[in-house]
């Protein structure tokens, strides 16, 4: 459908388009909020977390046995045991009221506090009790069978860093050091507006007439925004009237950090969205990108906030979202860099492309002969949604290639990390 | 900490342990429920979805131009145009009231229904209007600039398959074909119980005394269960009394599909959980696995439902969760196979291991010289949580290796697909 970009004076290469867009704005985190420890999973930390305590808080026996001074056990053998006098017993949860002096030992339970003087725990199997003493049959090295104070976490240590994604173990660490809330980045509010007089709401009561089109871009983009760490706002559908589009955008942007529009970005008759952006005085940095599908993309700044205008045809909309909206949302959400999960695969058939264009070829992945194969579904057909639902990801044909060869090793960018279910 | 598995008669290899556990039970989906289209993102489909309609529903103009019979344009040239008589005009949303016969053409808008007889759209640039006719300057091939009926989705076609993970584009497809709810697998209810008299709730009002331990396993496991597609139930903490543990398990299992316990799985004095499972008459299939960390794992079946008993020390608990609890939860949730996101990296230092044991070495990933490097953090220390919080994943040393060499290429299994933030 090269038609779609008929009329553009120049198509900007993808890399240049994204770079100039990102350079133009301050696309950093939109704010910081405190969140309880049990609600921060998956959020991005907005502060360095410093532990106020040692973990463990004291030298702790890792085994049941005898607290000893390790040097007292050196040279001990089965046929030449060393004798140590028992001076007490320590249970978990109590502070020992005595020291272990030279030639002395104390019974100790796993998890109990090591008495002063002792620097190791001798396991029961390596000693025997004789009256008020023990016979030691094996030497034990210093700090053996002891979890030393601060060996897990030291007081004053930075344990979690600003910008990191919070995982289950990080929640555990917050519990461990007693920090019950942390500062995380606020989720950016992202408004989503569909433009087009032909559009109707999905499952709307009034049946879609001939030539009416169900607006599937908005629900898809809403899901994607949430996936990227944004807070999606639904701004509905506006028909082909630039003034109305401008009004809705202006109103919506008062309470949002970013806008995504779909449709109305072609050249000529159907550039309603572009016209609306001009009416608003938005700075249109890019209009038309050298990609397939998805070339009629516009990237603008309105009142310092990013506006990403995606093409209406669903496959083009999704690919353009991945390329241009995702990296911006993630920056606003506090993620530091981009990462799309990917796998290496062998291309099952030749893929043609056009020099100067970057093509995004949807592929179906399967396993054969112990490796992944990528079957190209379609290069063109920006309106064909089923190429997206039948594929697990896409392969990129760079601008300087006229295509990719059958059998070539390629990187497949996966839509989600769950794509290999059934094959991984 | 080889101590932890002192006393096991035999340690079962990981693969054998998991295999026998999975073979013993019917670890399939626990149920099916209907969910609305806008609430099924990320769920697993429990039915094949068949489209009741063609998409597009009719042959649709992909461009503004003229609906023609393609054969009428064959041979047309700039200096030898072909003349076609204009017989009407079709706008989007209307049904044309005429046919296009031989030697005829009709004006048509993008998205409008192609009149009968026509099989292509000639773009305006390739024709000019002269009175009631057009002069055609270029031939157009059949179905050019037409989105044919059923070219995206055919009526009767299976468009989404049972067992697949629902992504944004799949939600879009449901809207497109007008299916407003789908059957998905029910999330399995997974109870989580901590065993140990030394344990206290995180952030509990009563300060933890010396030797008391904050129960961080339960909040971590709760997060992990939700991540795997389960519905976590908190069964709290039970002290070192087998009868009480048995009672809590019995009561909880009435409303759950699976149980996960942490702690009380060693051999001898501190095997409260094992004792409780015996009291309940549970079938203990495996107790003690040849891994580090995490060897004191027990895998049981109670009333036909899986019980995974994890070791208490947090690093061991997390690794054992990944190996034994995750695959079972995902099976109950309807996922078909396992996939942990992974990357290839070069090992930054030698890692020792013990023959016959599978070791899970936590590694910190970084980029240098255009590739990933994995710095081993620690092999032992099952209680050291910070090796989990400072690492992005783990490397496996198989049973038949005494270690991995510095510089060796290894696979790093990532905890989450977000681990490469900062490096990817």
What would you say this structure looks like, in words?
- 2 copies of one chain form a homodimer.
- The first copy, chain A, is built from 7 helices and 28 strands.
- With about 425 residues, chain A is α/β, with parallel strands linked by helices.
- Chain A has 4 domains: about 1-30 and about 185-330, Molybdenum Cofactor Biosythetic Enzyme, Chain A (3-Layer(aba) Sandwich); about 40-55 and about 150-185, Alpha-Beta Complex (Molybdopterin biosynthesis moea protein, domain 2); about 60-145, Molybdopterin biosynthesis moea protein, domain 3 (Molybdopterin biosynthesis moeA protein, domain 3, Beta Complex); about 340-415, MoeA, C-terminal, domain IV (Beta-clip).
- The first copy, chain A, has a 6-stranded mixed beta sheet, with no helix packed on it.
- In chain A, helix 3 (about 215-225) runs parallel beside helix 6 and helix 4 crosses helix 5.
- Chains A and B meet through helix 2, strand 15, helix 3 and helix 7 of A and helix 2, strand 15, helix 3 and helix 7 of B.
């Amino acid at each position: 459908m090269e038609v779609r970009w008929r009329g553009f004076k120049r198509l900007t290469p993808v890399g240049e388009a994204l770079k100039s867009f990102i350079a133009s704005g301050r696309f950093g985190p939109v704010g910081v909020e405190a969140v309880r420890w049990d609600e921060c999973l998956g959020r991005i930390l907005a502060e360095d977390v410093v532990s106020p305590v040692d973990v463990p808080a004291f030298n702790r026996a890792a085994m049941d046995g005898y607290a000893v001074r390790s040097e007292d056990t050196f040279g001990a053998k089965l046929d030449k045991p060393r004798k140590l006098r028992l001076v007490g017993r320590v249970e978990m949860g109590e502070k020992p009221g005595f020291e272990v002096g030279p030639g002395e030992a104390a019974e100790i339970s796993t998890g109990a506090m090591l008495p002063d003087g002792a620097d190791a725990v001798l396991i029961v199997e390596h000693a025997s009790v004789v009256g008020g003493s023990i016979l030691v049959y094996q030497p034990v090295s210093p700090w053996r069978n002891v979890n030393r104070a601060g060996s897990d976490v030291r007081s004053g240590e930075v344990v979690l860093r600003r910008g990191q994604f919070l995982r289950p173990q990080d929640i555990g660490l917050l519990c461990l050091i007693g920090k019950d809330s942390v500062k995380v980045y606020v989720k950016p509010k992202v408004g989503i507006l569909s433009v087009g007089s032909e559009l109707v709401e999905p499952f709307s009561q009034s049946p879609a007439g001939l030539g009416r089109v169900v607006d599937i871009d908005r629900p898809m983009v809403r899901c994607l925004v949430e996936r990227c760490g944004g807070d999606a706002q639904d701004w509905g559908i506006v028909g082909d009237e630039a003034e109305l589009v401008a009004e809705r955008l202006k109103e919506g942007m008062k309470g949002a950090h970013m806008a995504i529009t779909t449709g109305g970005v072609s050249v000529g008759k159907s550039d309603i969205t572009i016209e609306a952006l001009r009416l608003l005085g938005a700075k249109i940095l890019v209009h038309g990108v050298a990609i397939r599908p998805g070339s009629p993309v516009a990237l603008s700044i309105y009142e310092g906030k990013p506006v990403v205008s995606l093409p209406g045809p669903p496959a083009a909309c999704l690919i353009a979202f991945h390329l241009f909206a995702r990296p911006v949302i993630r920056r606003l959400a506090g993620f530091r860099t981009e990462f799309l999960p990917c796998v290496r695969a062998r291309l099952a058939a030749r893929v043609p492309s056009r020099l100067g264009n970057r093509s995004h070829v949807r592929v179906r992945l399967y396993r054969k002969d112990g490796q992944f194969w990528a079957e190209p579904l379609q290069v063109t057909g920006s309106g064909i949604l089923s190429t997206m639902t039948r594929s697990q990801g896409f392969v990129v044909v760079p601008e300087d290639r006229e295509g990719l060869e059958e059998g070539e090793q390629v990187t497949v960018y996966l839509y989600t990390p769950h794509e290999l279910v059934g094959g991984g």
